[in-house]
Design brief:
- With 155 residues, the chain is mostly helical.
- It has two domains: 15-105, Multidrug-efflux Transporter Regulator, Chain: A, Domain 2 (Orthogonal Bundle), CATH 1.10.1660.10; 108-151.
- The protein is 57% helix and 10% strand.
- It is built from six helices and five strands, in the order βααββαααββα.
- It is elongated and about 80 Å long.
Length: 155
């Protein structure tokens, strides 16, 4: 669990709705609405009805946010996903996306352009040879254009 709360509590301590909202960068009313839509979110309630979220609830909310806000899925689609794949899939979703993005970072190739000074252009690896050929053609065209511009006497 990778929670970074400003209030120093034990990692497994229960959190109030405002603490959870601050951690997930959401408004409390959004969390209350999700609570009404997803029966898997069951915060403990104390006297006066104040909600206290368990670490598992927070992880589930983080997964919901990744799917609803990050992937732009509808609530209906996320509900279907929860039914088909279970709560553990939703909890693990943000971690899988982070791992996927870090793997993508490792697969990037770096091209330094001499005319760009210290700027660097990053290009993802290409899924097939056709895409690679298109990019190489564009790079060759740009190189030829650069040669022509440098050859001009008034440039």
């Amino acid at each position: 669990m990778n929670t970074k709360f400003e209030i120093q509590k034990a990692p497994r301590a229960f959190r109030t709705i405002s603490e959870v909202a601050g951690e997930l960068n959401l408004e409390p009313y959004v969390i209350r609405f999700w609570e009404s839509q997803f029966k898997q979110i069951r915060p403990m309630r104390r006297k006066g009805g104040r909600r206290y979220y368990r670490p598992g609830d927070i992880d589930f909310l983080r997964g919901l946010k990744a799917l609803l806000h990050g992937e732009n899925l509808t609530i209906k689609k996320v509900k279907e996903t929860v039914i088909k794949k279970g709560k553990k899939f939703i909890v693990s979703w943000p971690n899988e996306k982070i791992a996927e993005l870090s793997a993508l970072e490792k697969r990037k190739i770096q091209i330094k352009l001499s005319y760009a000074g210290k700027k660097t252009l990053y290009v993802k690896t290409f899924p097939n040879e056709e895409e690679k050929l298109k990019i190489n053609t564009i790079i060759e065209s740009l190189s030829e254009l650069k040669k022509q511009m440098l050859a001009r006497t008034n440039f």
